[in-house]
Amino acid sequence: MKLSLAHFCLIAFLVLEAINSATIYYLHQSSLPHSKQVQSADQSGAQRILAPAISGLAANMRATVARIAQSPQTINSLKSGSERERLAQVGNIHTLFPDARIQRTLPNGKAGGNAFTQPLSVVYADMPQGSGSNPALAIAEPVMDMENPAILGFVVISKGSAELRSMFESLQLQDAYAELQQANSNGPYNVLMQRGDARLKTSAFQELTDLQGTAWRLVVWRAPAKPVTSPVQTHLAAWALSSLFLALGMAGLYLALRKAVKNDIDSLLLFFSDIRHSRLRKAYTFQLKDFEQNFELMYRLGKLMLGKNKQVNESASIDHLSQVNNRRSFDIKQKELFKTLAEGWTHSLLIIDIDNFKQVNDTFGHDAGDALIVQFGKALKEQLRSSDFIARLGGDEFCVIFPNTPLKKAEELAGRLRQNLPEELELTRGVMHQLRWSGGLSEYKKNDETENMALSRADSALLEAKRAGRDQTRMAA
Ligand SMILES: Nc1nc2c(ncn2[C@@H]2O[C@H](COP(=O)(O)OP(=O)(O)OP(=O)(O)O)[C@@H](O)[C@H]2O)c(=O)[nH]1
Question: What superfamily does domain 318-475 belong to in CATH?
């Protein structure tokens, strides 16, 4: 599958976004169980700590009060009504409970005075009621006459409020309101103690716990669990923000990459275009290091290739002896110029033949003839403009094309050439040759059928020059 840069960046963004979303979801989830744990620990605190403590206290008190109520001394002291026995029993109880305050009561009567002001009281009395502001945990046990079954009176132990209050105050309550209540036979529950924010009573969830062995119960109102909105909002905001940064970052990366890649691809295309046109610039700009490093090798190869190419082209177009253009490149040049005639351009040509060349060969040898060709080519290049096209057509015959030059002007140039070419050339060391040449001039015509017709006319003019005694230039008619 082929991917564009935009597709690649989009896929990378989606993958990163998925990782980002999963991470934030994980963080969100891991924050939820913690708050639940705290909540359940709070809910069980009242029952776990206070209920067993008060129930255990009541059980101990009940065992003690039963022991006192069933002792023969207690029964006898109530049955006889003797002051002596009652005082003896008071002494016994004082031994057991040094802090006890003993109060005389009628067998079925009310206790006189306040029996519950001390931390521990033992009274012969009815079941006492605690007061709202100063409650006491009271346990009563009847004193029975076993011989003549009847209730002789009651033994009551009450625990003062200070110890209960400190137990109640030690309750761990968070976001809750608690009441210690006492059952009331003729109405609603009395509130003995209370803690926390009473406003929760109207809106909160209520937990009831009966305290075993007592007429009390513990009621806790708890605020409903807070909806977990703030973590969700925080995490949503974090997700949106991180996604936005991710998208912006990826868009920036895409634009920067696209700019760099486009620049480097343009440079590569420019390089290949230059190679096609057989030229190279000094430098090509690259932004990506990867491109630049690999391009260095390509650039060196391109330079080498163009150098070789130039050599091959030159060797294919240059005459190996005279070092001017050969016949093949002359034909190409002619064709090229011939096409431009239709556009109104004018070109002329001069055909040159060295006079009596054969004699040189015959007199001084073929190498001397070659040397004359070499020297003559060199002299032509020195005397003509670089825009003039010089070629050797074969043997001792050369041709000069004057581009953008009408015949009249070419005649003037040919005359100047005749004047400026050296009088003599050195064939071999010490052997000088008097240079003479004949020339034929003509102009390319746009109504010529082929590009060679101008050459043919120049050839005829050359022949005329030869016939007229050589060492002169003739113009085609
Ligand atoms: N040394 C040498 N001779 C060549 C070369 N090519 C052709 N020739 C000889 O050049 C001579 C050409 O002579 P022509 O141009 O026909 O005769 P010419 O002596 O110059 O007489 P005119 O042209 O009438 O003045 C021939 O003898 C060819 O063999 C070459 O590459 N090197």
Answer: Reverse transcriptase/Diguanylate cyclase domain (3.30.70.270)
